[in-house]
From TrEMBL:
Residues 23-276 form the EAL domain. The chain holds residues 435 to 712 of 718 of the full protein. It comes from Siminovitchia terrae. The lineage of its organism: Bacteria, Bacillati, Bacillota, Bacilli, Bacillales. This is Uncharacterized protein. Keywords: Coiled coil.
Length: 278
């Protein structure tokens, strides 16, 4: 029994060690990735499904490592956040998304909003407002075509976050609360944070057509947002059935595989040319 116990521990240790090695490796590689231009963006369309029109895009970072291949964001973003590497990565994403959006406007496509995910580490970084202004000046994008997606669950200091967001919003940039409804204090957040849009988390959309609770939560969010004059978008819309439920509840904007997965800038351009995306 002892023998087994010991080998059990040994196995456990080896496993732990392997994990931390992978983690160290990713951290080392992540440090080099910005300079070596291993990141690129995919863009997912946001649709007004009352009209079938394109209203915006969400820029999603991708990491293509020469040996490791594609490392998913859920794997490297948390490491980037812990190490502070999210600051240079996030800045790169912001600049690239603004640059691309301006380029599309210059090509003559009707303007859409570029949504960029911003982690709390970035927001709390001193000088974030100046960084945003600098990127907008550099790229020539009008602030009204930029939206920052912030996740509600991560603000340690709500007052501070509200002050920063208020400044950014004062400059004309839109603020969206991502993964809305998943935090413990969702309603407190929209009371205190300056917000233009809430993005209903995909977990509520996933079973909206078969779960009364999810449906009730979505409808409550829609009613609340309507009263507060906040826009709503649904994320993770995958089926016609889900879309119908959203439509019935009065939600008219969405994003998800039903319309398109995130795609390259070249592929995205066809969505500008399609008059009906439904
Ligand atoms: P998120 O902001 O909630 O982004 C939505 C995620 O859901 C994306 O995964 C997207 O590809 C995926 N998705 C879109 N439509 C559907 C659908 O219909 N069904 C399903 N099952 N999934 C869908 P992705 O690109 O792997 O990103 C994962 C997370 O990584 C993002 O979640 C976001 O939190 C983070 N992330 C991605 N890019 C950035 C970035 O540039 N900066 C920061 N700070 N975080 C980022
Ligand atoms: Ca997002
Ligand atoms: Ca989500
Ligand atoms: Ca989300």
């Amino acid at each position: 029994v002892k023998e087994r116990g010991r080998s059990g521990y040994a196995l456990f240790d080896a496993d732990m060690e392997e994990k931390s090695l992978e983690r160290i490796l990713l951290e080392v590689e992540l440090r080099k990735a910005v300079e070596r231009e291993q990141f690129y963006l995919d863009y997912q369309p946001k649709i007004d499904f009352s009209k079938g029109t394109l209203v915006g895009m969400e820029a999603l970072v991708r990491w293509n490592h020469p040996d490791l291949g594609r490392v998913p964001p859920n794997k490297f973003i948390p490491i980037a956040e812990e190490t502070g590497l999210i600051i240079p990565i996030g800045e790169w994403v912001l600049r690239e998304a603004c640059k691309q959006n301006k380029k599309w406007q210059d090509m003559g496509y009707s303007p859409i909003t570029a949504s960029v995910n911003v982690s709390v580490r970035q927001l709390e970084q001193s000088g974030i407002l100046n960084k945003v202004i600098e990127v907008l000046n550099e790229t020539g994008l009008d602030p009204k075509w930029l939206e920052l997606e912030v996740t509600e669950s991560v603000f340690a200091d709500l007052e501070n976050a509200a002050a920063i967001l208020e400044e950014i919003r004062g400059f004309g940039v839109k603020i969206s609360v991502d993964d809305f409804g998943t935090g413990y204090n969702s309603f407190t957040y929209i009371k205190h944070l300056p917000v233009d849009t809430v993005k209903i988390d995909s977990s509520f959309i996933r079973d909206i057509h078969q779960n009364v609770e999810s449906k009730a939560i979505v409808n409550a969010i829609l009613t609340l947002a309507d009263t507060l004059n906040i826009s709503v978008i649904a994320e993770g819309v995958e089926s016609k059935e889900q879309l119908e439920h959203l439509n019935k509840g009065g939600c008219i904007q969405g994003q998800g595989y039903l319309f398109s997965k995130p795609v390259s800038n070249e592929l995205f351009e066809k969505y500008f040319r399609d008059s009906n995306l439904l």
